[in-house]
Amino acid sequence: MSARADMAKPDDLRDAMAEAAAEIDQALGILIPRPEGPEARLFEAMRHAAIGGGKRLRGFLVLEGARQFGVARDAALRAAAAVEMLHAYSLVHDDLPCMDDDDLRRGKPTVHKAFDEATAVLAGDALQANAFYVLAEPDTHPDPAVRAELCRCLARAAGPRGMCGGQMLDMLAEQAGEPLEEAEIGRLQLLKTGKLIEFAAEAGAILGKAPWPMRQALAAYGRDLGAAFQIADDLLDATASAAETGKRTGKDAAAGKATLVGLLGIERARAQAERLAAQAAAHLDAFGERADLLKALAAYAIARRT
């Protein structure tokens, strides 16, 4: 892009994200095929969860990070699809009755409603496994060390020190019924949401064998973007309608979940999200105009209504 980030046009980002989402969906359609035979129901549930709908923010981060280093689009799309499969698995399990018990996701019935609970568990498990299978294949990168690093970093982001650990903290906080301090909420959200977004931002640098400072800059961008994105998500839960977001809203307050919105109030939480978004964009200064879309994404993350 030729425009500076502070002059970026919303249409530029919107068009780029729509194009990326279509490409990612096409890649997912290939990587999660429609097979014949008795296991077809499992693939149908996986496709229901992973294909269609959603902002594809994580996949877009992979693609834009990869673009900074001239990574081939096909390779970047495989990594983006893998991240979106991992994210879809987390949503399928998060929606189960034993977790958040949600009936609506991305404007359509959740997997356990469209199919059944057992199929939803298997679909989530299969999506997670397939994400690592895709990353480990030579088509993703000819260098086995790069493929191993992608798998290592994604596993760290998704495991007990990442997404799963954050979900555990969320459940424990809800069960305890006692308010968390701001730092505790920040750590919970860093693990539950932020680590996967951080990996998505860093993945393109891993694919491109980028110098360590550039890789760290993208990771720092993703970390702050993830924190801002989560606050924005909590603000949407408190202020938006289900028709706008494509999922049930008001559930955090009803369940007594620990969020910065609940602790700080809407205005202070919004101000903190804005500070984090500006901080995220500042990490990209060394990339120059190449990172304009990523900088614009930081602003979009806190202004969105879906």
Written as H for each helix and E for each strand, in order along the chain, the element string is HHHHEEHHHHHHHHHHH
Main pleated-sheet profile: 2 strands, antiparallel
- Count of DSSP-assigned helices: 15
Q: What is the CATH architecture annotation?
A: Orthogonal Bundle
What's the total number of strands? 2
The N- and C-terminal alpha carbons lie at a distance of 25 Å
Shape: globular
Cα Rg: 18 Å
- Considering DSSP H and I runs of 4 or more, what fraction of the residues is helical? over 70%
CATH superfamily, called what?
Answer: Farnesyl Diphosphate Synthase
**CATH topology category name:** Farnesyl Diphosphate Synthase
Mean pLDDT across residues: 89
State the name of the first-level CATH class: Mainly Alpha
Structural class from helices and strands?
mainly alpha
Runs with pLDDT <50, length 5+? Answer: 1-7
Query: Into how many domains do the coordinates divide?
Result: 1
Numbering strands along the chain, what is their spatial order in the largest sheet? 1-2
Enzyme class: transferase
GO biological process, one term: terpenoid biosynthetic process
InterPro entries: Isoprenoid_synthase_dom_sf, Polyprenyl_synt, Polyprenyl_synt_CS, Prenyl_diphosphate_synthase
EC number: 2.5.1.1, 2.5.1.10
